[in-house]
Amino acid sequence: MEKKRLLSLDVLRGMTVCLMILVNNGAGEHIYSTLQHSKWNGMTPCDLVFPFFLFIMGISTFLSLKQTNFAWNRQTACKIAKRTVLLFAIGLFINWFDLLLQGRALDFEHLRIWGVMQRIAICYGAVSVFALSINHKRTLPLIATLLIAYAMFLMLGNGYAYDSQQNLIAQIDIHLFGQAHLYHKSPVDPEGLASSLPAIAHTLIGFYCGRLMAMARTTEEKVLKFMLVGGVLVLIGYLASFGLPLNKRIWSPSYVCITCGLAATCLGLLMYVIDMKGVSRSRLTFFLVFGTNPLFLYVVSELLSILFGSRAWKEELYGTLHAIIVNPYLASLVYALLFTLLHAAIGYPLWKKKIYIKL
């Protein structure tokens, strides 16, 4: 039973990482809107991938630390600290690699401090410390406190202002780190420090769902719990969106609830299909390839994306595809699909040989 439950999680993780790579690697100037992040308020399917990953990481953190009985000791603390630092350092390396290929290897004054891996590091570290330090019965009150506090912060700090000079979230990051070290294609850094608070709450929701999963006695009970939690969170998020619109850039509370709700629902459906209906494992191979080495393949995708872009390989390949496929949107999608399949080819032998590269 445990093996099947973990299989469901691996499949959802694989789907998420696969889509992360796909949506991050469109080519040309014409990309389907569904494969682009919303500019500000609102949400596209593309805006689901990163929150799904944080939700899954919350569940995985619970399952991992449960093996140590959530005991706070030197070995576990060192493991958490090392992984947190490693993830953050990898994120910095990705940003530096971009500068390197631009011929600006020593331009540390413009090195972006934040990014996807850095946010993963902060959320993992914070939730792991919570898991070892605080009674897990306080998970829901803590999540509610974090999201309510952040909602008040947004309202009092003009958090929805599309102007970095007026938006307190942006101003905090600017004053702490400097504009040169932040993301420049949005009024606020979408992975900055200030908006990490709701992202931690987001990961804690996944942690709470991991606890629900462990407490369930049967697969049917797990499915029902995830579907119920998913439905409740989507409803809460929808109601909250009337006063606090969905917004990935600032990681709004409504965005947290709806994306976590959808992730819980998807996991419940996968448990039903895989664990209860017994879908053949061979049919899941493609997503298991991504799900068993998720962060490794994501990091490789980021480095290759930077390399392809800096060497004009991306432009040349897209140009070749566009010459064959007249529709520029379709040509861009085909490029992204080929790029994703490249990573499936990289990950397949690792999965086949049961080599799991843990970051």
Tell me what the structure shows.
This is Heparan-alpha-glucosaminide N-acetyltransferase catalytic domain-containing protein. Keywords: Membrane, Transmembrane, Transmembrane helix. It comes from Segatella maculosa OT 289. InterPro entries: HGSNAT_cat. Pfam families: HGSNAT_cat (PF07786). The chain has two domains: 106 residues, no CATH class; 222 residues, no CATH class. The chain is built from 13 helices and no strands. Helices cover 67% and strands 0% of the residues. Helix 1 crosses helix 9 and helix 8 runs antiparallel to helix 9. With 359 residues, the chain is mainly alpha-helical.
Structure described in brief:
The protein is mostly helical and 359 residues long. The protein is 67% helix and 0% strand. The chain has 2 domains: 1-36 and 280-300 and 311-359, no CATH class; 55-276, no CATH class.
Q: Which geometry do the CA atoms define? A: globular
* Percentage of β-strand residues: under 5%
Overall pLDDT, averaged?
94
State the share of residues found in helices, binned by percent: 55-70%
Please trace the helix and strand order, writing H or E for each element: HHHHHHHHHHHHH
Q: Number of DSSP helices?
A: 13
**Oligomeric state, counting identical vs distinct chains:** single chain
> Main β-sheet: number of strands, strand sense, barrel status?
none
Unreliable spans are: 1-5
Tell me the radius of gyration: 20 Å
Number of spatially distinct domains: 2
Structural class: mainly alpha
* Total E-strand runs: 0
Could you tell me how far the N terminus lies from the C terminus, measured between alpha carbons in angstroms?
27 Å
